[in-house]
Amino acid sequence: MTAALTGNRIMVRFLKDVFQVSPEEEADALKLLGATYVDKFNDLTAAYTTWRAALETAGRVEDQAAYRARLLQPSKEVSAAYGEGAREIATEADLEELYCDLGKCVKMFSVW
To answer: Is 32:47 a contact under the CB 8 Å cutoff?
Structure first.
C-alpha cells in the first residue's frame, strides 16, 4: 500500500508478484494508486486506467457477494465528508459516471 501512496505503479506490480497478494488486496492497492494519481499528480487519465484495472481485478475475488457488500456499504465517515450516498465505485457504469464529472472525481478519490 505504501507504494500505491507514493504513486509508484512499478513497485506496486513488483510487490504484488513477490508477495502473491489476493485479488481483493490487489484491487484495493490499485484503487489507492488511482487516488494518488488524482491527488498528487492531477493525472485523471492514469487514475481512470488504474481504477479500471482495479475493477477487472476485483472480478477475480472469490467471494463476490461479500466484496460487493463491502463496497456498497455506506460509511458514516464518508457520508459526513462527502455527502449522503457516497460510496466506493463498484461497477464500470460508476466509473464512467465519475470520469465524466471532474468535480465528483476530485471529491471521491479520497473514498478510495
So the answer is: no
